[in-house]
Specification:
Pfam families: HGD-D. This protein is 50% helix and 14% strand. It is α/β, with parallel strands linked by helices. The strands form 2 sheets. A 4-stranded parallel β-sheet has the order 2-1-3-4. A 4-stranded parallel β-sheet has the order 6-5-7-8, with helices on both faces. Strand 1, helix 1 (12-17) and strand 2 form a beta-alpha-beta unit. It is globular.
Length: 333
């Protein structure tokens, strides 16, 4: 089966209908034993130091891992992706683009997806059949999410891992489904995790995935991963077609639309605080100003760059934040 890389979540149903094995390049980059080698490769080829590490990592993965075709999202995600595609095309990689519409209107979403289907010459009926199959896997991811925040049995990292992996289902949605069924069966046998503080993680999935284990060293745990959850399309089963599903995908549209769903989850999951993760040199860092104004909950913003482990300063800030949340919960403030 021919492989195609993606720079972030795209209508994967179209690519599967076209006979591709879909590979989320972010997941290869961030889970690598030494992800810095991908960044170093990009910088040797001229990418600036001030460019986002994710963009450099995706570039490095494409070249080092022999990716010959790629779909880049040029609207609704990273503002640097358009330039990335131009460089990759120069390197002989076949590039396709997908743009989430700037206006959050269903007819515009339909037009964008239909154009994408035409690009790969696949019928709507085949796409919908694939969507039905994927929804079986997505329903299991939703079950694992419930095991995290309702039954307190799944860890924050497990929640993060399987939701973020839903962008490409690890390259094989059938194997992914089988693995998840086994994982859920094991988790259901556990005793509930008893932690005082319930945290939410908003913003792009982190390079520093050790944050989940780190907060558990204290009396805290993550029970909500915002963007990762959106990758898994938790509301897909409620929609009649692919157009409605991607219209309801919050991450790529305006911030107010995202915040409506975040606010619902703050209340539904009874969160004590949020950690907002942003990537250095990304325009989304500016969104932290709006988020802190519009959400009535303590929020700590942390920023990642090239490291895939938390540095000492960030650990200290997280510890101080958790101390403050503990004092608030016990009524000491």
């Amino acid at each position: 089966m021919k492989k195609i890389g993606i720079t972030t979540t795209v209508p994967i149903e179209v690519l599967l209908a076209a006979g591709y094995q879909v590979i989320d390049l972010n997941n290869i980059f961030v889970t690598a034993e030494d992800c810095s080698e991908y960044i170093d490769l990009a910088e040797r080829d001229g990418f600036p130091k001030s460019c986002c590490a994710w963009i450099k990592g995706i570039y490095g993965v494409c070249l080092k891992e022999g990716i010959s075709e790629i779909v880049g999202v040029i609207e609704g995600d990273c503002s640097n992706t358009r330039a990335l595609l131009e460089v990759l095309e120069l390197k002989g990689i076949k590039v396709y683009s997908f743009a989430y519409p700037h206006r959050h209107q269903l007819r515009d979403v339909k037009e964008a997806i239909d154009d994408f289907r035409s690009l790969f010459s696949v019928d709507k009926e085949v796409v919908e059949e694939i969507r039905d199959n994927l929804n079986k896997a997505r329903s299991l991811v939703k079950k694992l999410d419930e095991l995290t925040y309702l039954e307190n049995k799944a860890t924050g990292f497990e929640n993060h891992l399987y939701q973020v992996s839903s962008s490409d289902f690890n390259g094989d949605f059938r194997k992914f489904t089988e693995e998840l069924e086994s994982v859920i069966a094991e988790i259901e046998k556990r005793k509930p995790i008893a932690k005082k503080l319930r945290l939410g993680f908003i913003g792009v999935p982190p390079m520093t995935a050790d944050i989940y284990q780190y907060v558990e060293n204290f009396d805290a745990c993550f029970v909500y991963n915002e963007v990762q959850r959106e990758f898994a399309f938790p509301r897909a089963i409620n929609h009649n077609n692919i157009y409605q599903q991607y219209y309801d995908y919050t991450y790529v549209y305006d911030l107010d639309f995202r915040l409506e769903y975040i606010q619902e989850e703050l209340e539904h999951r009874k969160l004590d605080g949020l950690i907002h993760y942003t990537q250095a040199f990304c325009y989304r860092e500016i969104e932290d100003v709006v988020i802190k104004q519009k959400l009535d909950i303590p929020i700590l913003n942390i920023s990642g760059d090239k490291l895939n482990r938390l540095d000492s300063r960030t650990k200290l800030r997280i510890e101080a934040f958790l101390d403050m949340l503990g004092d608030l919960k016990e009524g000491r403030f």
